[in-house]
Amino acid sequence: MKLSLSRFGSILVGEAGLVWDDPLRHRQIPLDQQGLEAIRWFADAKGSVSERARAVEQLGEDLVTALEALEIVLSEVSPRHRRENLLLRSWGEWSTHARMYHFATRVEVGEEFASTAQNRAMLRHKRIEEPPPSRFPHVEANALALPVPGAVPGTPCIDVLRTRRTVRRFAGQPLGGAVLSTLLKEAVGLSEARQRSRGDRDYENFFRSAPSGGARVSTEVYLVARSVRGLPPGGYRYNPLDHTVTPVGRPLPDEELAHALGGQTWFLDCPVLLVYGVDLPSLVWKYPHARAYRVGILDVGHLSQAVLMTATALGLGAGFTAAFRESVLEGALGVDPAVNALAGVCGIGHPWDNDPQTQGLHE
């Protein structure tokens, strides 16, 4: 009978030393020197798949049996080995890190959620002892005011849903500043801000047209302005609290932008691109567990759909991508990846359209 190391485990540094991390069973097993040496032996090119008799000869019956019981080492006929083979049919092409995160953050049978009462008590305590980080800065000295937002055409929502399409061919025309202002206000601006008090502290709750996990409004929006009337080319951060943009970066030349977006040159004809990031401190404050990263990515998806719908209602074209080089955009927009995790880019502009009846919607 052959034995091999589990392909869904890895050695990590735990609080008390090295551990074997098993994301499928949500456990970390402390490793002593003997255990580490045994894992190294199995990981060796000649020992990664070994006859059990040879493993026993080298490591001893007790140690091999213990490794099997802990599912660090698997026999070819074990249920765990069969399960891993099935999972690898879907997950094998992705990295070990992707597999580890996904399975480690699943909620399994028997794992408990905090009750509503427990959550409320925890939040009451945190708001007093550890107030949430300020979500949006108030008026910044170098912030630029946007034009007064206009009205969105009264197209029924169901018609907007049915007509929305990803656009990758743009007319290369400038975008009106008022149109951009309307898009930002309706899609990513604040629809409501509530002032509340808890103990001797005041705090704010913010709301957008798109939902966000725990009402944390965790999606940060940056702009790469290329051809917007009244807005100099460059990088900006949008502040929905006062509907302004703050300069944070220089203009990106075509070659650099194409490189940042993985060679997707169709973005170069967009007068403006929105870059979405997950504000990590706002999520961690309420959800101090790794599963909340999923919430942040979902928040970006919700907000992105609001942008796509609003752009469609305004007669604009828009296309989303998650294929980009984070480090290039972080450098261009002054983003700290320890605080803000970039998650997507949306190009917006006038679609390639020769119908004169639709041209007025873009001005």
UniProtKB/TrEMBL annotation:
<dbReference type="InterPro" id="IPR052544">
    <property type="entry name" value="Bacteriocin_Proc_Enz"/>
</dbReference>
<dbReference type="InterPro" id="IPR020051">
    <property type="entry name" value="SagB-type_dehydrogenase"/>
</dbReference>
<dbReference type="InterPro" id="IPR000415">
    <property type="entry name" value="Nitroreductase-like"/>
</dbReference>
<dbReference type="InterPro" id="IPR029479">
    <property type="entry name" value="Nitroreductase"/>
</dbReference>
<protein>
    <submittedName>
        <fullName>Nitroreductase family protein</fullName>
    </submittedName>
</protein>
<dbReference type="GO" id="GO:0016491">
    <property type="term" value="F:oxidoreductase activity"/>
</dbReference>
<feature type="domain" description="Nitroreductase">
    <location>
        <begin position="161"/>
        <end position="350"/>
    </location>
</feature>
<dbReference type="Pfam" id="PF00881">
    <property type="entry name" value="Nitroreductase"/>
</dbReference>
